[in-house]
Design goal:
GO terms for molecular function: DNA binding. It comes from Candidatus Aeolococcus gillhamiae. Keywords: DNA-binding, Repressor, Transcription, Transcription regulation. The chain has two domains: 52 residues, Arc Repressor Mutant, subunit A (Orthogonal Bundle), CATH 1.10.10; 139 residues, Orthogonal Bundle (Tetracycline Repressor, domain 2). 68% of the residues lie in helices and 2% in strands. The protein contains nine helices and two strands, in the order ββααααααααα. The chain has a two-stranded antiparallel sheet with strand order 1-2. α4 crosses α6, α6 crosses α7 and α6 packs across α8. The longest helix is centred in the C-terminal third of the chain and has 27 residues. The radius of gyration is 21 Å and the shape is elongated.
Length: 219
């Protein structure tokens, strides 16, 4: 297949090198971009985001810098891509919990267990820890992160409200507040695991979370 090439241009990041890129279909462009994102996950798992270099991501993805800068203007854009991908996965889990036919307590237990299971994914754990750190320094990261937190809280609140309507949960504490607490527990455990993974005893932690959830049952 013969590709048509656009005029030679330097990429927008100000690098001296120039590249020729073939015209790609939207599907090809998305696959190419995802290849770079997948490489970034692997690099972050090894080095963390702070020490991540564009050169390392390009080498891992086997692409040139010109290709990288077609999709990402700067390194922070890669962090946003990882944030969006991780957030989408988390929100999909919460939706599956909300749509489940299981009793309310079992729904919340399933959510907590699947979230805590991520402790084996070093790249995902590192990205979440780095996101929390970047959130306090970069307004744009904080705003994007808060958007996702708000969506998770609303989705989880729906599952809790459903349990309150059936009388399974005590309605003394608002569903939104309980959702905030549950999300804070899960996020907090993930941050502790990223900082000191060897100190975590996950079987005990799961039992502890189960005990807390059992306390939500209506008397």
């Amino acid at each position: 297949m013969t590709h048509r090439y656009p005029p030679r241009q330097a990429h927008s990041a100000g690098c001296d090198e120039e590249v020729l890129m073939p015209r790609l279909s939207p599907e090809q462009r998305e696959n190419h971009r995802q290849r770079i994102v997948d490489a970034a996950w692997r690099c972050v798992a090894r080095t963390g985001y702070c020490d991540l270099r564009v050169e390392d991501v390009c080498a891992e993805a086997a692409v040139g810098k010109g290709s990288f800068y077609l999709y990402f203007k700067r390194k922070d854009d890669v962090l946003f891509a990882l944030l969006e991908q991780d957030a989408a996965a988390i929100e999909e889990r919460i939706r599956s919990v909300v749509m489940s036919n299981q009793p309310g307590i079992d729904r919340l237990r399933l959510f907590a267990q699947t979230m805590l299971a991520d402790h084996d994914d070093k790249g995902r754990m590192q990205v979440r820890a780095d996101l929390w750190a970047e959130m306090f320094c970069e307004k744009s990261v904080r705003e994007r992160f808060v958007e996702h937190l708000d969506r998770r809280r609303r989705l989880l609140s729906e599952a809790i409200e459903a349990g309150m309507r059936t009388g399974e949960f005590d309605g003394g504490v608002p569903a939104e507040t309980l959702a905030r607490i549950l999300l804070a527990i899960v996020d907090g455990l993930m941050l502790h695991a990223a900082a000191a993974p060897r100190s975590m005893r996950w079987s005990y932690l799961r039992q502890g979370v189960d005990g807390l959830l059992a306390g939500l049952r209506a008397a």
